[in-house]
Amino acid sequence: MKLLVFICVFFLTVAVYAAPIVLIPQSMAHPEFPEELLKKSHAGKVIVYLQVDSSGTVRTVKVMESSHPKFAEAAQRALVQWRYEPWEAHTDAPSKLGILVPVIFGARGIEPFSPEVTVGLGNILCAYLNYEVKASKREFPGEPLSQVDVFWYTGQHLSSGYAEHRLPEEGERKALYGRLVKSIPNVVKKCRRNPDSRYGEHLAQEIRALLPEVVADKASGAKEKGGSSHE
């Protein structure tokens, strides 16, 4: 499945340009947990590829991986409504940008089950990462931790069109990937100590800055701060 995701992302990645366009969300509908799966305490994961054009409209919502068809439907239904701040497309700016968005239904994995839905790599709960690490050691004991899905998707994001657009120097992106791999044991330790924290909190600042949901958090925080100043 990981190989399939990589191949699809490779072919769907849009052209890279020099202008530092940042995907800044204006509205992000949150996926709803399918009722019948919620009643069964059925956790799952969906990986969605989004392509956004310069008007800020989501033009492509493609499910790359899903543990259940109803999870895929719920994720598509929400993410197709997302809107970003528009940008001016010209010679040095792309007309489209593409990103991968993980959606976790049941934020802690199978046990203990949680009805929370998290969206975006950086927002994944450490409890879910702990669950994936445990499952990987049980099912694939010889695999390095870098192959655990959460880390693997982070590595793929660092080689994506969006990351390449934000950080054009290939050497810098390779250095960031090396830094990610070296940090994995420490991230795992921190997540074990604090399962309620978010995975993104334990990444290097330079990696965290390339995650679109971090921009969303900053934008949301700025709006809240701006709103409170008028109260």
CATH class: Alpha Beta
* Number of structurally distinct domains: 1
Radius of gyration over all CA atoms, rounded: 18 Å
Helix content: 40-55%
Strands of the widest sheet, in order across it, are 3-2-5-6
Percent strand equals: 15-25%
Largest sheet: 4 strands, antiparallel
Classification by helices and strands: alpha+beta
The residue-averaged pLDDT reads 84
The third-level CATH topology is TolA/TonB C-terminal domain
Head-to-tail CA distance between termini: 50 Å
Uncertain residue ranges? 3-19, 215-231
Q: Oligomerization state of this entry?
A: single chain
User: What is the β-strand count?
Assistant: 6
Query: What is the name of the CATH superfamily?
Result: TonB
Topology as a string of helices (H) and strands (E) = HEHEEHEEEHHHHHH
The backbone outline, from C-alpha atoms, is globular
* Count, helices: 9
Architecture per CATH nomenclature, i.e. the level-2 architecture: 2-Layer Sandwich
